[in-house]
Design goal:
The protein is mainly alpha-helical. 52% of the residues lie in helices and 8% in strands. A 3-stranded antiparallel beta sheet has the order 1-2-3. A hairpin with a 5-residue loop joins strand 2 and strand 3. The termini are far apart.
């Protein structure tokens, strides 16, 4: 089911009605956007997810802007190769306005991707990054900091390295302490 956009936009004709019915509609709350899943059901996302969606859309539009001519099925291989070489030799304005040079291999990959999956396939794949630092070592670091709030991250890293043969970098520990509110200033009551 496609969401009803009339409650948001009234009965005025929408310039991008198709886009709104597929990608999503803005709710009465200006900070909440509802996107539709594949079945057309409304799915609310948080502002961070909305930002990621817009960035992915911008990247896909950037890629499409580069490959749209070269992806034409009617072009001969020679013409396509020449066009791709020309596209790879020039500087393109990136999504943030900074100049970007795109390699021929990337352009060829984007053309293949576009032909297989259309515009949606040009979106960057979601990143699933898992923490590299073992959780038990971070917990140990937190316990060591709570035990003596004036221990530095370098000293805690040295203790962990002595006990376990390896430790996270001291900067990793500093970020971890800050995220958990385990900085020296916070633990000692100095702000």
């Amino acid at each position: 089911m496609v969401p009803d956009v009339s409650d948001v936009w009234g009965n005025a004709p929408l310039q991008h009605e198709l886009t709104l019915s597929i990608a999503g509609v803005i709710s009465n709350d200006p900070f909440v956007v509802f996107y539709c899943d594949k079945k057309g059901e409304k799915v609310a996302t948080d502002p961070q997810e909305e930002q990621k969606h817009h960035r992915a859309e911008d990247i896909a539009l950037f890629r499409y802007g580069i490959v749209r001519e070269a992806a034409d099925e009617t072009l001969s291989k020679a013409k396509r190769g020449q066009l791709v070489r020309e596209l790879a030799s020039i500087t393109h304005p990136g999504i943030d306005g900074a100049p970007v040079v795109v390699s021929r291999q990337s352009i060829d990959r984007w053309i293949r991707t576009y032909r297989k999956g259309g515009f949606r396939a040009l979106h960057p794949s979601a990143r699933h990054v898992e923490p590299r630092t073992p959780e038990h070592l971070l917990e140990l670091a937190g316990d060591l900091r709570k035990e003596d709030p004036f221990r530095t991250a370098a000293h805690i890293a040295q203790i962990i390295r002595t006990q376990h043969g390896w430790s996270p970098h001291e900067r990793t520990l500093q970020r971890y302490f800050k995220d958990l509110g385990l900085t020296i200033a916070q633990l000692s009551g100095q702000n």
